[in-house]
Fold this sequence. Notes:
Blueprint: H1 7-11, H2 30-64, H3 75-85, E1 88-89, E2 92-93, H4 100-131, H5 133-148, H6 151-162, H7 166-190, H8 194-202, H9 207-236, H10 238-241, H11 250-259, H12 263-291
Antiparallel strand pairs: 1-2
Helix pairs in contact: 3-12, 4-5, 4-7, 4-9, 4-11, 5-7, 6-7, 7-9, 8-9, 9-12, 11-12
Region (Disordered): 1-33
Protein name: ABC transporter permease subunit
Membrane topology: Multi-pass membrane protein
Amino acid sequence: xxxxxxxxxxxxxxxxxxxxxxxxxxxxxxxxxxxxxxxxxxxxxxxxxxxxxxxxxxxxxxxxxxxxxxxxxxxxxxxxxxxxxxxxxxxxxxxxxxxxxxxxxxxxxxxxxxxxxxxxxxxxxxxxxxxxxxxxxxxxxxxxxxxxxxxxxxxxxxxxxxxxxxxxxxxxxxxxxxxxxxxxxxxxxxxxxxxxxxxxxxxxxxxxxxxxxxxxxxxxxxxxxxxxxxxxxxxxxxxxxxxxxxxxxxxxxxxxxxxxxxxxxxxxxxxxxxxxxxxxxxxxxxxxxxxxxxxxxx
Length: 298
């Protein structure tokens, strides 16, 4: 008779299975995404409806002939002006030898260079005004003075100084774009969290390190708002910048068409400025969300 196995071997059952790994939580809640998608569709639908209503009112006013077509062109006339300025008709290419896209592109290049220089100068001045009290005392009145001046108020002086070529236009856009960035940056830098600044100093950070690593990141959302305002002001000033020798350019196109009572071309130029301005602002808003995603969530 063979010996019986030990008690431990007789009582031990099969090896216990390893602990089951809990399932991963769902990546996204479909029920939460559905209301957000519906809200987005409602916003888009309301905007499309509002645009359709405005176009309908515009068409109704022109069809009733309440005003002369020279004063209020019809949507069809503006569409025809778009077709004529976008190609070659009767041997004439676009408007004054340039298409509408070319006029708009030249104006955008001026805005990019001029407003870009103004934004850069505003950032430097804003950081100095926000970190050095004596610089703020000296420069704040001058920045506020420039912010209250309309562009046409000093454009004539810029023409006297720099002539009628590109220089006065770029200077005008730079001066118009600089004050809002400087004011926003100075205010944001001056109101940086004191606890974070003191903590950085306590671990041995120098002034420049405190500014670049603590102050500027905390002030970035407000700075980006100032940049958006600056480009908006510069864009609204492009017509003033192109009143003198502005062709080619969208502002010069509007001014030249106004001289010959071509109201359909004037309205087309205004639409081109407005639509491209909305696209630029949307791009800056997207950039702000990417660079400062914590804005509105803290």
